[in-house]
Design brief:
The chain has two helices and three strands, in the order E-E-H-H-E. The longest helix is centred in the middle third of the chain and has 11 residues. 14% of the residues are buried. Helix 1 packs across helix 2. The chain has 66 residues and is of the alpha+beta class.
C-alpha cells in the first residue's frame, strides 16, 4: 500500500491524503487531485516524483520498482 500526502511533497497548506494499492491507482488519484493545485495535465515527471514521495507500506498490487 502507498500512503501519500501533499504535505510530504512540500505543499504544507494542502491537507490532501490518500492511500493506493498500486502505483497506477495512486497516479490516477494524483492526476485528479492536482486539478485543485491548478495543474490540469500533470507531466509524467511530476507524477513520478509524487509517487516517489509516497510511503510504501508494502503489499502493492504492482511490483514496479521506483
Amino acid at each position: 500500500m502507498l500512503k501519500y500526502s501533499c504535505a510530504a511533497a512540500g505543499a504544507d497548506s494542502c491537507g490532501f491524503k490518500t492511500t493506493a494499492t498500486s502505483r497506477a491507482d495512486l497516479a490516477r488519484q494524483l492526476a485528479e487531485h492536482l486539478k485543485h493545485h491548478n495543474v490540469q495535465q500533470p507531466t509524467q515527471t511530476i507524477v513520478r516524483y509524487l509517487i516517489q514521495v509516497a510511503e510504501d507500506t508494502g503489499n502493492l498490487v504492482d511490483s514496479n520498482t521506483r
